[in-house]
Write a structure and sequence with these properties.
Layout (H helix, E strand, L loop, with lengths): L1 E2 L13 E2 L45 H16 L4 E3 L9 E4 L12 E20 L7 E15 L5 E7 H14 L10 H6 L1 H12 L2
Antiparallel strand pairs: 1-5, 2-7, 3-4, 4-5, 5-6, 6-7
């Protein structure tokens, strides 16, 4: 996901809490254990590549390879100017996403890695502008839940619970859609779908020429 064109004052999320409601330590991929393999760059897949519709499969192995993948996804996200990235966007069919609401390499305090995430509670609806790394140059308003609770596993396979609102909630929902093969343009209003039609056609033509 990318911020809307008018986004500013992006802030880090509140401290995530575990299933017992206690604050948990956020271990960021890259803190002293990165292997050489994890430094290889990942390419972000662009619409209409069919991998974007396949979604992700449940992650069952929690090992160094998963940590390396998460680290590489963060680097790909920052390189493209994003605030969130799901594994299917780098052609990896796993239920894994990374995010940082600030989108800044210089402020990593908000980094989160969610494995096998699912929404367990949701409340309120609101429209907000979004962009997507897999849809370069396209921004539009999307209706999302305002307040959500997400249960997921961390990189050690331990279950965690996160309560998210507003901007953080929107990022998580956008990336969760990718894990189910749902794209943000699927959620546009009929008027916005018509407005971005020419840009989608351009992406399709570019993909066909590859």
């Amino acid at each position: 996901m990318t911020p809307g064109k008018g986004a500013k004052n992006l802030t880090a999320p509140p401290i995530p809490r575990n299933a017992e409601g206690k604050p948990r330590n956020r271990r960021r991929p890259g803190a002293g254990w990165r292997s050489e393999a994890c430094m290889e760059p990942l390419d972000v897949v662009v619409y209409p590549d069919p991998v974007l519709r396949r979604g992700g499969k449940q992650v069952t192995t929690f090992d160094q390879a998963l940590r390396d993948l998460a680290a590489r996804m963060f680097e790909a996200m920052y390189a493209e100017g994003g605030v969130g990235l799901a594994a299917p966007q780098v052609a990896i069919e796993q239920k894994l996403l990374v995010l940082n609401p600030t989108g800044s390499r210089d402020d990593r305090t908000g980094e989160l890695t969610l494995v096998n995430p699912r929404i367990t509670r949701k409340k309120g609806r609101a429209f907000g502008e979004e962009g997507c790394l897999s849809f370069p140059g396209i921004h539009a308003d999307v209706e999302r839940w305002v307040d959500i609770t997400v249960t997921y596993q961390d990189l050690d396979g331990k279950e965690q619970t996160l309560q998210a609102t507003d901007w953080l909630s929107r990022i998580i929902q956008h990336e969760l859609d990718h894990l189910d093969g749902v794209l943000f343009v699927d959620r546009l209003t009929p008027a916005d779908k018509l407005r971005v039609r020419s840009k989608l056609d351009e992406l399709q033509e570019r993909h066909a020429r590859r």
